[in-house]
C-alpha cells in the first residue's frame, strides 16, 4: 500500500457539514455578549445532569481535592459548633436552677468565716509591751558607730 | 468589539473548518457547539479580528485548539475527557446512503477516534486543512519535528487499522 495513496484516500473523504441551524444561535450569542456583556448559552443536546456535572467540573477545576477538603473542614466546624452549643445550653440551664442554692451556701460560709476571724482580730488589737520610741533628741547614750566592712575584704 | 457583519463573515468563511476540526478533536457534538460559540464570543469581545492577522484560518484554528485544550484541562481530573471523547463514536464524515460507503466512513471515524487527541489534531490539520508541519507546529505550540512525528505515527496507526478496507477499495 502506497502511503501517498492512503493519505490521498483519507483526504478525499468529505467531512460532515456544519449544521445550518447553529449559525443564528452562535452569532446572536456572540453579538449579545458584546452588547450586554452576557452571553446566553446555546441550548445544547446535553441532558441536565451532564450539564450540571460539566458546570461543577468547571467550578471546581483548579483543585478539586482542595475544595473537597475545605468542604470537609466546614462540615466538621459546623458539627463541632452545633455540639458545643448544645452542651453550653444545658450547662446554662442547670446553672440557673442551682444559683439560688449556691448563693445561700456562700452566704452561710461567709458568716462562719467572719465568726472565726473575729477573735483573732480582737487579739491582734491588744497593745504591745514594747514602749513607743522617743524622739531622737531625747535618746541617751553614745551615738552608734557604723563599722566599715572595707578591711575585711582587702 | 467587532464591526457589524464581521462575525458573520468570519463564520461563513471559517465556520465549516472550525466545526470539522473541533468535532474531530472533541468527538462530541455538544462540546463542539459550545466551543464554537465560545470562540465566536471571544472574537466578538476581542479588538483584534482574524482579518488583521496574516493567516486568519490558522489563527482561528489555533484559538479553537486552545479552547478545546482548556476544556480538557477543566474536566481532566473528574471526567477523564480524553477517554470519554475518544470512546464516543459520531459521524465525522458527510452522511451517505450507500451502505458500503457508509461503513467505510464509519470505520475511518472509529479509527480516528482511537488516536490520541493531539495526534488526531495533527492528522486533521495536515490531511483536511492542508497545513504544513511548520504551520501546525506554530498552531499547536510544539516543535515542527514533533508535529511531523505525531502525523507519521498517526497515519501509521490508521493505515494498520484500515488496511483491509483500503485494499478492498483498491
Secondary-structure element order of chain A, N to C: HHHHH
How many distinct helices of chain A? 5
Kindly identify the CATH topology of chain B: Arc Repressor Mutant, subunit A
Residue share in helices of chain B?
A: over 70%
Uncertain runs of chain A with pLDDT below 50, 5 residues or more? 38-45, 146-154
Judging by the overall fold, what is the CATH architecture of chain B?
A: Orthogonal Bundle
Can you tell me the overall shape of chain A? Answer: rod-shaped
Oligomer: heterodimer
Structure description:
- The complex is a heterodimer of chains A (154) and B (170).
- In chain A, 67% of the residues lie in helices and 0% in strands.
- Among the domains of chain A are: 1-43, no CATH class; 62-118.
- Chain A has helices at 3-12, 22-36, 48-59, 64-125, 150-153.
- Chain A has 5 helices and no strands.
- With 154 residues, chain A is mostly helical.
- Chain B is mainly α and 170 residues long.
- Chain B has one domain (6-169): Winged helix-like DNA-binding domain superfamily/Winged helix DNA-binding domain (Arc Repressor Mutant, subunit A, Orthogonal Bundle).
- Chain B has helices spanning 6-26, 29-45, 56-79, 81-87, 99-113, 117-127, 133-140, 144-169.
- In chain B, α2 (29-45) packs across α3 and α6 packs across α8 (144-169).
- The model of chain B has no long low-confidence stretch (mean pLDDT 86).
Amino acid at each position: 500500500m502506497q502511503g501517498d495513496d492512503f493519505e490521498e484516500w483519507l483526504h478525499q473523504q468529505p467531512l460532515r457539514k456544519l449544521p445550518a441551524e447553529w449559525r443564528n444561535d452562535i452569532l446572536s450569542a456572540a453579538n449579545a455578549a458584546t452588547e450586554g456583556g452576557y452571553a446566553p448559552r446555546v441550548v445544547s443536546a446535553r441532558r441536565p445532569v451532564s450539564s450540571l456535572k460539566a458546570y461543577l467540573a468547571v467550578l471546581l477545576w483548579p483543585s478539586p481535592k482542595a475544595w473537597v477538603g475545605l468542604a470537609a473542614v466546614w462540615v466538621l466546624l459546623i458539627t463541632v459548633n452545633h455540639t458545643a452549643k448544645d452542651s453550653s445550653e444545658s450547662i446554662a440551664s442547670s446553672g440557673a436552677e442551682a444559683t439560688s442554692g449556691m448563693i445561700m451556701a456562700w452566704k452561710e460560709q461567709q458568716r462562719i468565716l467572719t465568726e472565726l476571724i473575729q477573735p483573732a482580730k480582737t487579739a491582734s488589737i491588744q497593745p504591745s509591751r514594747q514602749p513607743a520610741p522617743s524622739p531622737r533628741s531625747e535618746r541617751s547614750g553614745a551615738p552608734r558607730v557604723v563599722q566599715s566592712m572595707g578591711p575585711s575584704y582587702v | 468589539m467587532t464591526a457589524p457583519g464581521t462575525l458573520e463573515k468570519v463564520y461563513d468563511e471559517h465556520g465549516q473548518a472550525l466545526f470539522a476540526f473541533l468535532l474531530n478533536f472533541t468527538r462530541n457534538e455538544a462540546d463542539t457547539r459550545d466551543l464554537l460559540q465560545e470562540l465566536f464570543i471571544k472574537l466578538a469581545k476581542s479588538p483584534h479580528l482574524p482579518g488583521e492577522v496574516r493567516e486568519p484560518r490558522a489563527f482561528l484554528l489555533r484559538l479553537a485548539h486552545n479552547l478545546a485544550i482548556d476544556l480538557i484541562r477543566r474536566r481532566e481530573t473528574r471526567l477523564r475527557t480524553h477517554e470519554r471523547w475518544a470512546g464516543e463514536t459520531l459521524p465525522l464524515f458527510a452522511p451517505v446512503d450507500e451502505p458500503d460507503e457508509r461503513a467505510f466512513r464509519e470505520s475511518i471515524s472509529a479509527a480516528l477516534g482511537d488516536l490520541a487527541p493531539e495526534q488526531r489534531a495533527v492528522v486533521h490539520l495536515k490531511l483536511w486543512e492542508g497545513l504544513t508541519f511548520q504551520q501546525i507546529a506554530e498552531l499547536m505550540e510544539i516543535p515542527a519535528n514533533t508535529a511531523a512525528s505525531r502525523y507519521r505515527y498517526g497515519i501509521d496507526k490508521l493505515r494498520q487499522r484500515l488496511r483491509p478496507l483500503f485494499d478492498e477499495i483498491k
